[in-house]
C-alpha cells in the first residue's frame, strides 16, 4: 500500500482526475497552506488533496453572515468539521497539483489546480495551522468492456448535452472533440453531468473504469428521458458549476 501525507482542502464538490479546479483562497488556514506550498521547488508539483465534505461547512463560521448568521465564530484548522474531521469527509478524494498560484496584496490567493490521482483518506491531522491527511493512492483499473462502454457513454452524453442546452444551441455540435480514452471519458462525463455531491462521489470511488461508465450510462439515459418529457426546466443553473468561495 502506497501512502502519502498531504495538505487537505475540503470542498462542497468532488474533484476528478484530469479536471481543472479554480479556487479563491481567503481563509487563514488555507492561506497558510498555500504559503507552504509556494516553498516547494519550482520543478516539483505543489500537491494537496481535495475531499468532498459529508457533514460540515466549506467556510467556517467566522462572523455574522459567514456563512451562518446565527453560528458562533470558530477558529483552527478543523473549524466547521466537528470534533472528528475524518468523519466529516467522504472517504475517497483526489490529489490536486496547483500549477498556478497567484498571491494578492491582501494575502488572498487565486489558484488553478488540476486533479491527478484518486486517494483514500486514512487519517486526518489537525495539529498544525491547516489540516493534513495520510492518504492511500488508488490505482485505476480498466474493468471489462471499458472501451465499448466509453463509446456508448459519449453518444449518450452528446444527447444529454443537447437536451440541457436546447435544440438550437450550436456550441455543443457533434463536431466538438471529446477524448476516446475510457478512463478520461469516465471522469470528464462524471464532472460534467448535473448531479448532487453524493452521486458524483459514488462515481469517483467506483471500483474500476467500466463500473463508472456503466453507472454513467444509466444516469445519462434516465436524465435525458426526464429532460425530454419536461415542457420546461426549473430555474436552475444546469450548465454551470459553482466555484468554491475558498
TrEMBL record:
Cross-referenced SMART domains: LON (SM00464)
Protein name: LON peptidase substrate-binding domain-containing protein
InterPro entries xrefs: Lon_prtase_N (IPR003111), Lon_prtase_N_sf (IPR046336), PUA-like_sf (IPR015947)
Organism lineage string: Bacteria, Bacillati, Actinomycetota, Actinomycetes, Kitasatosporales
Residue ranges annotated for the Lon N-terminal domain, each copy included: 6-224
Domain of life assignment: Bacteria
Chain intervals for the UniProt region annotation (Disordered): 59-80
Annotated organism of origin: Streptomyces lavenduligriseus
